[in-house]
Every structure is written in structure tokens, then in C-alpha cells.
Amino acid sequence: MSDSDKGESKINKDSLGYIVFMAVAVCLVCSIIVSTAAVALKPQQQINKALDIKQNILRAAGLLPEDSNKSPDGRSIDDLFSQFEVLAVELDTGKVLSDYAVADYDPIKAARDPALSRNLTGDEDVAVLGRRENVSLVYLLANEAGQTEKVVIPVRGYGLWGTLYGYLALSGDASSTLGLGFYDQKETPGLGGEVVNPKWKAQWAGVKVYDESGTPSVALVKSRSASGSPAAEYEVDALSGATLTTRGVENLVNFWTGELGFGPYLNKLRTSS
Ligand SMILES: Cc1cc2nc3c(=O)[nH]c(=O)nc-3n(C[C@H](O)[C@H](O)[C@H](O)COP(=O)(O)O)c2cc1C
């Protein structure tokens, strides 16, 4: 048999059918590998997501350094987080819902479900959320005497390029902030992205939240009021060159501490202390 006869009996690798077959086969194999990896890695992704949430709550509350995932005294994230009591709160009333499956509850997911959330009208929706969940979570840290020392609430709102997701830590009487941190945001690094700069974040320790009438009054300003003046107590420096992100952060803080956010719940802490 000549070489050309041998070639004819084999598959013609230059034929259109062969090329299409190989392309489909390669796509199929790749998609099986990617799908298998996605399914296999899902549990680990969920563990990492839960760990990330805990780290962000701990960071906002000042229990974890900005630049490390380890506590200075070597305690694990789970150990530190176990100090918090997690409560489900009905936002409209501020009522704590006992026996709620808080470990499985995702307020952001709930906000997408019309049965578990409410629509926000244009005037109400200063944080540009569209919908707001009916129930959310609060994280309470008590001191040795059993008094609430820190309250951490999840917050979110629109900046310039997208929604910023984070946690706001408040004093036990909910009168002032202890820290604010965002774990997910799309603002421009160096401009709006400075929301994650530890130096800017440091200003959030001790900002007064409510004015005399109980209205959330945190203000992000380009030039601060005279130090020691009443207005200065509510102020945080604006992000330079990022007016829209700045406005978004101010709006989201005042939204989530207000009547349509955790206001009814936080009001109980303020009046009971
Ligand atoms: C490439 C680019 C990225 C920007 N990113 C942001 C941003 O992340 N946040 C923001 O508020 N403004 C951002 N801006 C600026 C806004 O478009 C707008 O000019 C600014 O908010 C005005 O702020 P100023 O009054 O402090 O200058 C960006 C502009 C450009 C050109």
C-alpha cells in the first residue's frame, strides 16, 4: 500500500466536518472542566464569603486591624466573631424577631424578592436601592457587664459607578459611629475608591449621628466647621475629586440610620440608654 493510500483510509483532518467536530469536542471538554470546578469550589466560596463578612464586621467594629486578617492577640476570626450576638430586626418597626434563622438569612438577597422587601419611592430612595428588605441583621457586642457596647449594621448605597456594600459600627447607645468599612465597591481607585483608605476611614470614629430632633445628620464636607463647634461633631472630610461618591456615602449612612433603615431599632437603643 502506498503512502497516499494509507492517508485516504485515515480521517481527513483538513475537512470542515473534522474541524467542526474537534471545535465542539474541545468546547464540551472545557465546559465540563469549568462546570465541575465551579460546582466543586462552591462550598469553599461560601465559606470564604462568610469569613469575609465576619472580617468586615470585625474591622468596622475595630476588632481587627485594617491591614491584617489576624487579631493582634492571635485570636481566630471565628473566635472574635463569636462575641457578637446576631439579631434579625424588622426594619419598619425595629422589632427584634426571635427564633429567626439568622445564619441562613441574606438581607441583600431578600431585597430582590418582592415578598420579602418593599419598593422605595423616589423621595425615600436617597441611597438608590430600588427595594429595601423588610428584615435585616444587627450584630451586637456586649461588655463584661452585659451592656451593649457596639452595634454593627449592614449598609449599602449607590456611589458613582455602582453600589457600595459595607458595615457601619455604632456605639452601644447608637449615638455615634465607631467605624465604617466597605467590602465591595466599584469607585475609581484614588478618587471615590479612597473610601477604603484607612486614613479616610479613621475619621469615622466618634462621628455624631442624630441631631436634637433625632434626624440622622452625618455630613461629608469639603471644609470642616471650626473644631469644637456643634456642627463639627457630625462631619467627615469629603473624598477629594469624588463629589458623587462622597454624596453616595453620606446618603447611605443617613438612610440606614434613618426611619427607613435601622432608625426604629436604633431609636430604642438611644432612648433606653
Ligand atoms: C476617569 C474618571 C473617574 C472618576 N471617578 C470618580 C469616582 O470614583 N467618584 C466620583 O465621585 N467622581 C469620579 N470622577 C469625577 C466625577 O466625574 C466628577 O467630576 C466629580 O465627582 C466631581 O467632583 P469634585 O467636585 O470634587 O471635583 C471621575 C472622573 C473621571 C474622569
- DSSP summary: helix tally: 7
Helices and strands: which structural class? alpha+beta
Largest sheet: 6 strands, antiparallel
Total strands: 10
Weakly predicted, low-confidence segments: none
Going across the major beta sheet, what is the strand order? 2-1-5-6-7-8
Q: Can you write the helix and strand succession as a string?
A: HHHEEHEEEEEEHEEHH
What's the end-to-end separation, in Å? 99 Å
Overall, the morphology is elongated
Q: Percentage of helical residues?
A: 25-40%
Measured on Cα atoms, how large is the radius of gyration? 25 Å
Portion in strands: 15-25%
Q: pLDDT average, as an integer?
A: 92
Bound molecules: flavin mononucleotide
Number of domains: 1
List keywords for this structure.
273 residues, alpha+beta, 6-stranded antiparallel beta sheet, two-stranded antiparallel ribbon, 10 strands, elongated, binds flavin mononucleotide
Detailed description of the structure:
- With 273 residues, the protein is α+β, with helices and mostly antiparallel strands.
- The protein has one domain (73-272).
- It has helices at residues 3-9, 16-60, 77-81, 107-110, 198-201, 243-256, 263-272; strands at 84-90, 95-97, 117-119, 131-133, 135-142, 148-158, 163-171, 177-184, 219-221, 235-237.
- Strands 2-1-5-6-7-8 form a six-stranded antiparallel beta sheet. A two-stranded antiparallel ribbon has the order 3-4. Strands 9-10 form a two-stranded parallel sheet.
- Strand 5 and strand 6 form a beta hairpin.
- The structure holds flavin mononucleotide.
